[in-house]
Structure prediction request, 113 residues.
Amino acid sequence: MSKRDELIVKYAADLKDKCGVTPDMDLLTKVTVGCGPSIYNADSATVAGSDEKELATVKNNFLVKKLGLKDGPELDKAIDAVIEKYGRSNKNKYRAVVYYLLAVHFKKESVYN
Prediction:
């Protein structure tokens, strides 16, 4: 099993155990691949849910640029809802899991087809 496949299994477990979501493995794989090499770096593989700068990066680079959404308060609300669902006290919020949840929240799975 490749390192990426191991990470996808870990992300799927997080979605199931911490978020109560049964993941679409095809979509999760595509989101993970879309994250590129950042998933292999300990710092960039996770999202700091309380860091405003980090959350702005998620909004601008993922929601606006990748998913093509218009910037607005609903993006911040969605990020907040995803962080809440993942668990604010959960120290390791994996970027691929956060992106997966946001893509599903905005019904933008088609971006990965």
Remarks:
- The first helix runs from residue 3 to 19.
